[in-house]
Design a protein that fits this description.
binds iron/sulfur cluster; 13 helices; Endonuclease III, domain 1; mainly alpha
């Protein structure tokens, strides 16, 4: 069943939104820096930071290596958490020079599994950023998981609330062909649905994924626990039902 749902999600999303043309970036290096800067902020802010770097001719490994961390932080200020992110960019540049003399084409020769393990050793780069770099900068067939993915999977009953990154990634990898373009498009489409419909308060009524098996209609619309039987179902409201626990005044598990 999960296999059918995973495939149907993609078909429905692609039919609705079409290709997303990810990742926005002129070079693999720009994609990498964008992936680091986009942590905990929206893409518009990242674009402003990247534009600052370009305007100062700083969007190259060599320029970023020479630039003091304080100057870098000032340029990427629009991306937020700029001191932390400046350190993370610097950490990546150190790794790139230490291992590949600053040459991304050398880095690109390393097999995917090994490369992923290496990137994860860079302080401040976690699985989502590492996988974004592998997929969008190095064209590797690696599925990226983010908060939107988790929300959609959980709300459709495909994972538990405490599912970890590898478990969610495995759900896609197990049921899809190992296809870099498919992984590229699928992740971009999930981000689209997360931004437009599967928000903290979901817009299921208008959402193209509504009605697909494991629908939110079988879950409490407040806490998203499965409604086991008719006796647990509370009053109908937009997009679903409310379970008995959430009907208690003041009760909320989210
Ligand atoms: S908005 Fe509703 S139908 Fe759409 S993905 Fe989220 S839970 Fe599913």
């Amino acid at each position: 069943m999960p296999r059918a749902v995973i495939h149907t999600f993609y078909q429905r999303l692609y039919e609705t939104f079409g290709p997303q043309h990810w990742w926005p970036g002129e070079t693999p290096f720009e994609v990498i820096i964008g992936a680091i800067l986009t942590q905990n902020t929206n893409w518009r802010n990242v674009e402003r930071a990247l534009t600052n770097l370009k305007n100062h001719k700083a969007l190259t490994p060599r320029a970023l290596r020479r630039m003091p961390a304080g100057d870098l932080a000032a340029l990427i200020r629009p991306a937020g958490y700029f001191n932390v992110k400046a350190r993370r960019v610097k950490n990546f540049i150190d790794y790139l020079y230490h291992n590949y003399n600053g040459d991304l084409t050398c880095m690109a020769t390393v097999p995917t599994r090994e490369l992923r393990a290496e990137i994860l050793t860079v302080n401040g780069i976690g699985p989502e950023t590492a996988d974004s770099i592998l997929l969008y900068a190095f064209d590797r067939p690696v599925f990226v998981i983010d908060a939107y993915t988790k929300r959609v999977l959980y709300r459709h009953g495909l994972i538990d609330r405490d599912a970890d990154y590898p478990a969610m990634q495995d759900l896609f990898v197990r049921h899809l062909d190992e296809d870099r373009q498919l992984f590229n498009e699928y992740h971009a489409l999930i981000v689209r649905i997360g931004k437009d419909f599967c928000k903290p308060v979901p817009r299921c009524e208008q959402c193209p994924l509504n009605g697909i098996s494991y629908s939110l209609r079988d879950r409490c619309e407040r806490c998203f626990r499965v409604l086991q039987n008719a006796g647990q179902r509370g009053k109908r409201s937009q997009g679903g039902s409310v379970c008995g626990g959430c009907q208690v005044p003041g009760a909320s598990s989210r």
